[in-house]
Every structure is written in structure tokens, then in C-alpha cells.
Amino acid sequence: MSRPEFKSGFADEINKYIDFKVANGYKEKSYTILLHEFDRFCVRRGITDVSFTREDADAWSEKRETEATTSHYARVNKIKCFMEYLKLTGYDVCLLHDVFFKATDFQPHIYTEDEIKRYFNAVDTYSSDRNKLDVIILPVFFRLLYCCGTRINETLGIRKKDVDLDAGIIKLLETKNDCEQYIVLNPEMKELLIQFADKCFYLYKDDDYIFPSIAKTRRNGKRIYELHRLLLQHAGIPYIGGGHGPRIHDWRHTFAVRSFKQMIDHGMDMYVALPVLSTYLGHKTIYATERYIRLTLDLYPYIAEKYSQKFNSIFGKVAHLHETD
Questions:
Q1: In this structure, what are the phi and psi dihedrals at residue 159, rounded to the nearest 5 degrees?
Q2: Considering the chain, what percentage of its residues have pLDDT values greater than 70?
Q3: 4, 41, 199, 216: most buried by Cβ count inside 10 Å?
Q4: How many CB atoms lie under 10 A from the CB of residue 56?
């Protein structure tokens, strides 16, 4: 994506900061979007030079009415890092107060065996006059979410050149944590992707997305969310709404819980299984994987009986998450 034109008093320093982060291995777009929003905020407040007062800091830090806790945390703390950078380069700017991400009592939906069968039956029998390729694309797309635990935007961002059919490996570049990630396909998923490639890949150039829109561009996630609700309806799975799902992201939760259980059932020690799962999910630390282990212990008492003491010795009894999934 092209870098937007910044117009506030921070314009030059924002460009320098983005260049600095890119030079240190970070993705430009992971900073550009938020800094563009911050730049517009500064324009509205009439900031025409590199200055940032306590009033400015408090205004930026205020939680918005429709803003999720995770979004608020990211928005405030990323700009705090920018202010710290400006401090180090000699500018007298006011630093923002820390905003801590607090774990909630929200419980994701873990799909049952029966729900999984009904959902994928709905996927496999779905057809659309709007996009004829959906009958081929959607069974593969939704199975990647469930079988590999990928996030929706990571999956929509897969290009033909990112898929190694011989090795059964997919490279994920549009990841939440800006770290290049690889997912290894199980034999069934690998065979399904090979069949999908035989039907579609001859239509694609190397840089093309493998799950494109009708216009052959990157598919919009909003349409996938709408389709998910339709599939739930066809599968007879009640949609509660209000963020309580069942959500598309709950396929990732379901994958993580079932994977951890499978590793434990096959005799793998928790100290080995935890970092394996954390790495596969693309987490920077094992602490972001904590919620999945807690869910597994809640759902399977026999695992809790065996590992709850070890688990609490690692994480403590109360979650303090500083990395979100």
C-alpha cells in the first residue's frame, strides 16, 4: 500500500518513525494506518508543530464508546511508543499513561463435534449466483480456519506464491504480530489444497490471492462474516450476536483447544505442548496462548486434574495478558 500524506505538525517525524521501524524489520502498514489516524487527530486539534500536551495525551487516551478494550490498548500504547521515540530524538512531548489490557470473563464458543459436521455440511452445499467460484473456494477457506487455526485476515491474504504444494506448507505474511509464519498442513488438508489448486491455480498469477473476490482482488472480510452467519443458520446453530457468537474467530479457539487436548492425549508433556502450540498459532510469547490452555482445562477435567498445578505455576491463578490473539 502507498503511504498516505501526513498533514499535522508531526508529519516529518511520522515518516521518519515509519522508516525507522521498517529498517528494523517491521511491516510499514502495521504502523501507517494508526499513525494516519493519529495525524488526522492532531490536525483536528490544530497541532502545527512537534508538540503534545497533557490535554492532547488525555484526549487521545480516552476510550471511545464503541471501541473494544483490545483496540483501545493497541491505539494508546502504539502512540506512546511513538512519543518515546520523539523523546529520544530530543523533542519535549508529553508521554501517554500506560493502558493495560485486562482479561475479561468472555468465553469463546468451542464448536462441538455435531456442530462441526453440520457447519461444514452447510459450507459444502452452499452455492452462490454472485460468485460461481465460491463452491470451490469456501470449503477450502473455512477448513483452513478450523484445521490450521489461521485468523481470517491471514487466510484472505494468502497468495499463490505463498503455497508450497509439494511440502504442504503455507506462508502467512499478513499476520497480526507482523512476523512471517508458516503453517504445516496435515495429509487430508494438503490433499484438499492440491485438488483446489488443480481447479483454480491455473487462473492465478503468483501474486494473486487464492481466495479472491469477484473482481479478482483481495476479498473483503465483512462479506465473510455475513456468510458465516448464513452458514450458521443453514446448519441450525443459533447465533447469539453481540460479540458472543458463535464467531468465525471461534474456529481458531476450537482448533487450539482440540490441538492441545490431542497432544496431551498422545502423551506429550504440557511443558512441550505449550510452546509447540504457541509457535504454531503465531504468538510472540506463551502468555497469549494461556486462554486456550485455560479453556482446555475447563472443558476436560481429566487434563485439569493432571496439569492445573503446573499451569498455575507458569501463569498464576489470574491472567495478565499483554498480548492478544
A1: -105, 165
A2: 91
A3: 41
A4: 17
C-alpha cell at 280: 504454531
What DSSP designation does 226 have? H
Partners of 159 in the beta sheet? 209
Please provide residue 139's backbone torsions phi and psi, each rounded to the nearest 5 degrees: -60, -35
For 144, the grid coordinates are: 483452513
Residue 137 has pLDDT above 90, yes or no: yes
- pLDDT tens-digit map of 177-202: 667 889 999 999 999 999 999 999 99
End-to-end CA distance of the chain: 24
- Asked whether the beta carbons of 109 and 247 are under 8 A apart, the reply is yes
Closest to 39 measured CA to CA, from 22, 17, 23: 17
CA distance 179 to 121: 34
Residues in contact with 197: Cβ distance below 8 Å, sequence separation at least 6, in sequence order: 163, 165
261-275 per-position pLDDT tens digit: 999 999 998 888 888
Q: Pull the grid cell for residue 250.
A: 471461534
Tens of pLDDT, residue by residue over 284-309, are: 777 778 778 888 888 888 888 888 77
Q: Where are the alpha helices (DSSP H) in 125-163?
A: 134-148, 152-156
- Residues linked to residue 170 through DSSP beta bridges, in sequence order: 163, 183
Report the pLDDT averaged over residues 11-40.
Answer: 90
CA 23 to chain centre: 24
How crowded is residue 268: how many other Cβ atoms within 10 Å of its Cβ? 14
Asked if 93 and 100 count as a contact pair (C-beta separation under 8 A), the reply is no
Q: Facing residues of 184 across strands?
A: 169
Query: pTM score, two decimals?
Result: 0.69
**Is the separation of the CB atoms in 281 and 176 below 8 Å?**
no
Cell of 310: 503446573
